[in-house]
Design goal:
- The longest helix has 24 residues.
- It is built from four helices and no strands.
- Helix 1 packs across helix 2.
- By secondary structure, it is mostly helical.
Length: about 100
């Protein structure tokens, strides 16, 4: 007898920070990874900027300093592609982070 039930897909959990660090090599080819990476970078940058606005904190500056090269790397990977709007968004995010870093 043939069963019509599908087998469940098991996916290994990968922490967001690991995904961001590994994303540079194949993010341009996988829209899902690009979305995850961009969302993680933007969320972390937004939280760090808000923390700096509330009160100067070394942790928030350290977080922004860690995020900056990742944003730059992702921006350079996107610039050559046909995703102009995304490149503009990353450029604005990069400028905001740089302005907070001084």
């Amino acid at each position: 007898m043939i069963s019509a039930r599908t087998k469940p897909i098991r996916r290994a959990f990968v922490p967001a920070h690991t995904r961001v660090a590994e994303a540079s090599r194949d993010v341009r080819h996988d829209p899902a990874e690009l979305a995850v990476t961009l969302r993680d970078l933007a969320t972390r940058a937004h939280r760090a900027v808000r923390a700096l606005d509330a009160a100067p904190a070394a942790d928030a500056r350290r977080e922004l300093a860690e995020l900056h090269p990742r944003i730059v790397e992702l921006q350079h990977g996107i610039d050559g592609e046909s995703q102009q709007g995304l490149g503009s968004y990353l450029s604005a995010l990069r400028r905001e982070v740089e302005s907070r870093l001084g």
